[in-house]
Amino acid sequence: MGTQDQIQDISAFCGTKPLTVAYADGFGSNSWRKITRTLFEAEAAKCSNIEKVLYTDAQGDTQKAISDINSLVAQNVDIIVTFADAGEALLPTIKKATDAGVKVVPMVGSPGGTPGTDYVDFISEDITTYGRNLAEWTIKSMGGKGNLVMLGGIAGSSYSQGVFDGVTEAVKQHPDVTLLNADGPVSTDWEPGKTQQVMAGLITKYSEIDGIVADYGGGSIGGIRAFIAAGKPVPVWSANDSNEFACLWYQYKDTQPKYQIATESSRNWVVTAALHKGLAAASGIPNNEPSTYNLNIIEDSTDPALAPECEPDLPPDAILSSGLSVDQLKKLFN
After folding, report:
1. How confident is the model at residue 128 (pLDDT cuts 50, 70, 90)?
2. How far apart are CA 215 and CA 163, in angstroms?
């Protein structure tokens, strides 16, 4: 367990062997995924011996995710970093790639299996703790009672399930709080439009929603707009950071007295640690960077010292904690 400041300069792990690296994404179409891909490619560019950088997008399709990894192995890639959205369904394919000599490093979404045997390592924040911390803040801001909803991403995501597990841990400690989606995270596909549609349905179904925990701040903006469109009070809301998520709070805070927000880092930067692990394994270089990272609340509208950070000159989709510079974010979102 460690923190972001323990991630080292990539030069320690590049080695000298000519390498082909790949980022196999389980789903690539939202802003978080685009930022993460850009970070991966920018980090790989720092090693002169990386001759080729490949990218695949499974588009939320488990069979395509399997096919993508098999295709990368057939192209003789040396390292595959993958967001394993499909979870354990990907494990046999990952093990097959490992047996073929490819250094595979899953990140954020776990495929199960055994790190160090079935693949190099699994890199992520402590997902369950992330969900529990945000839920605890949300429940406190709700006054310790009321109805709570947890918004996830694509159906079956191992990452969203991990966050949900943390949320349920927190709810169990508060008998006056009801988790409305007790059977699992609400699927939003991590898209603002879909989130708005889903939230509109929940607003219609439930007479009172007092708090939201979401695993994607960029998608949450759609949910907030659903409350505004319905003429309903915007509830307490926690997620990972996104520029527009913060800016919307400033826009509505004076007319929505119950509306408070908190965020933890969107931690796109874990992709750099995952690449480092793969490089070190491929080059036979020791790597003592953490595999699991602790995250803390970085924005809290109830705490003046942690006031939400809105940058009007940056695109709404910008993630200020991502690891990309302001200029890189502007270029990415044009």
Report:
1. very high
2. 7
